[in-house]
From TrEMBL:
Gene3D superfamilies: P-loop containing nucleotide triphosphate hydrolases. GO terms for biological process: cell division; ribosomal small subunit assembly. Pfam families: MMR_HSR1 (PF01926). This is GTP-binding protein EngB required for normal cell division. Residues 69-209 form the G domain.
Length: 562
């Protein structure tokens, strides 16, 4: 018997102890995973993880000095009789009518006060709690102090509420003893519905073939071998397998020895939680890739997004207005003074769009930014191009991620599209387009134009004075000659020709400077709309990718990987 118990103890130990600090680290990693994926993944995929975090936190906060062991089995397996045999008292009702056990019963070895909070959390009613203390055999039971043994309802009960209660309790206990009988040990329900689901809880699983006395001695090894084969197929190789009979309490010696070992180790609750973490991590593993993927929005997609935003913001119309406004203002400042007033009657292109720099501004005044512009609304084609650019950014950024992360990236990229039109309008209205009011060279050319114009006017006035004196019969004033040309005529013609020459020389310079102003405005507007794209599209996308990386790293830690 010593050899059997030793092998059973080794199987229950699982070959290694669970470090509480390491377990807490893994639980914290699951919690960080849930924080990272919050709002990005479907809630139904995260329910087991949320349940684990809540349940594990509560279990660790409750008594570490108690080990909760459940007897689970089908109708007629004799688990209530086994429960009474282990307690050596008749605590759980045993009867002919099935199912007999409708609610869980608990037997506590040691003071009941220390286990009450734990049983309150598990949900065992006070009237179904028993304490295993006796002055007659107290020393015999001392090795089990700290054991909380539960007799669960039958999981195959005709009453559906019993099975729901079993499923709930199986998620809370530290160790499960599956009780089967020779008639139904191969029942599909117990194997496919329960045992296979515990393949990651081998360290806290034990199987008992009860009512072994019903088998001929020669048949018992064969049944045990067949049951072992089924357990191996269920993913439970090495799980302790015992044969018991409730009518002979001496047959429970090995089972009691295993329970004593489990209680002494104080590891069952930690191993159960470790198995729960393994199960949750396995279910979540397909949500992240083993290797890093997703590098963020690429340069090509970002450039395409900026171009689509610029088109939707009306940047081409604005830059065209900037170039036209430069030529308009330059012509007004450097043109012939006689026609400048006529030019001022033409509207300023920037003023028509209610853009910065479009209003009259005195030297040194600070122009107030406009709340809205009159830039034309984007066309249907431009809106479609913007939507396509946003989708392209999302596809390139999250296309390599496992489902459903690509959908989360796309949703993040489109999450603030409704705010983009107003943001673009504010960006254009708040951008300094760099259109000068009166550069120095405009003033110099304007001064030259005034000088030649005054020269022409002086010559004209001189000639008019001469004609007036001649008409009045008065002697003509002497007109200085410059070669063969009278000076008044030279002043008039020279001023006019000089004004035309200055205008001819200035015109290509104005066109060149206007094109430079347009390019400067394009760069500034491109930076402004790029900032809108960064804030409303790229930043949400990067936030999802960052969450993915955090979730992946957290899940690796939860899986016990470095």
């Amino acid at each position: 018997m010593t050899g059997i118990v030793g092998r059973m103890r080794e199987a229950l130990r699982g070959g290694q102890r669970v470090d509480p600090d390491d377990l807490i680290t893994r639980l914290d990693a699951v919690r960080r995973f849930l924080t990272a994926v919050d709002g990005h993944l479907p809630d139904e995929r995260l329910v087991p993880a949320h349940t684990l975090v809540e349940r594990a936190g509560t279990r660790l906060a409750l008594s570490r000095d108690h080990t909760v062991v459940a007897l689970a089995g089908a109708t007629g397996s004799g688990k209530s009789s086994l429960f009474n045999a282990l307690a050596r008292l008749d605590l759980s009702p045993v009867g002919v009518r099935r199912p007999t056990t409708g609610v869980a019963h608990a037997c506590v070895w040691g003071p009941l006060d220390g286990a009450n909070r734990l049983l309150d959390w598990i949900g065992v009613l006070p009237r179904h709690r028993f304490i295993r203390e006796s002055a007659l055999d107290g020393d015999d039971e001392s090795a089990l102090h700290g054991l909380v043994l539960l007799d669960l309802p039958d999981f195959d009960s005709v009453q559906h509420a019993h099975r729901l209660e079993v499923d709930r309790l199986l998620g809370l206990v530290d160790l499960v003893i599956w009780v089967v009988d020779p008639q139904k040990y191969a029942d599909r329900l117990v194997h496919t519905g329960y045992l296979r689901e515990f393949h990651r809880h081998r360290d806290v699983t034990l199987v008992v073939l009860n009512q072994a006395d019903r088998l001929p001695p020669a048949e018992l090894p064969r049944v045990l071998d067949d049951l072992r084969r089924l357990l191996d197929a269920d993913g439970l190789p090495g799980v302790p397998l015992l044969a018991t009979t409730a009518v002979d309490r001496s047959s429970t010696t090995e089972l009691r020895a295993a329970l004593e070992e489990t209680v002494a180790e104080r590891q069952a609750s930690l191993r159960r939680l470790a198995g729960d973490i393994d199960t949750v991590v396995e279910r979540l593993a397909d949500l992240v890739e083993p290797e890093p993927v997703g590098t963020g929005p690429d340069a090509a997609g970002t450039r395409a997004l900026t171009g689509a935003l610029a088109a939707a913001a009306g940047v081409p119309a604005v830059t065209t207005a900037v170039e036209a406004a430069y030529r308009h203002r330059a012509a007004g400042a450097t043109g012939w003074p006689v026609v400048r007033g006529w030019r001022r009657l033409r509207p300023d292109p920037l003023r028509r769009l209610h853009l910065p720099g479009g209003g009259e501004q005195t030297d040194g005044a600070v122009e107030k930014p406009l709340a809205a512009t009159s830039v034309p609304d984007p066309t249907a084609a431009q809106r479609s191009a913007l939507g396509l650019a946003v989708r392209t950014v999302a596809d390139r950024a999250g296309g390599d991620l496992p489902a459903p992360w690509p959908a989360a990236v796309t949703g993040a990229a489109r999450s603030r599209l409704g705010d983009v039109p107003d943001a673009l309008d504010r960006a254009v209205a708040g951008t300094d387009l760099g259109v000068p009011e009166r550069p120095v060279w405009w003033r110099l050319v304007g001064a030259v134009q005034w000088l030649v114009t005054l020269t022409a006017l002086a010559g004209l006035a001189w000639l008019v004075l001469g004609y007036a004196l001649n008409a009045l019969g008065l002697p003509d004033p002497d007109e200085p000659m410059v070669g063969a040309v009278p000076l008044p005529t030279l002043l008039l013609l020279g001023g006019l020709l000089a004004g035309l020459l200055v205008a001819a020389v200035t015109r290509p310079v104005v066109r060149w400077a206007a094109r430079r102003a347009r390019l400067r405005a394009e760069r500034r507007l491109a930076a402004a709309v790029a900032a809108v794209g960064e804030e409303h599209v790229l930043t949400p996308v990067r936030a999802v990718l960052t969450s993915y990386v955090e979730a992946r790293n957290a899940l690796r830690v939860a899986a016990g990987k470095k």
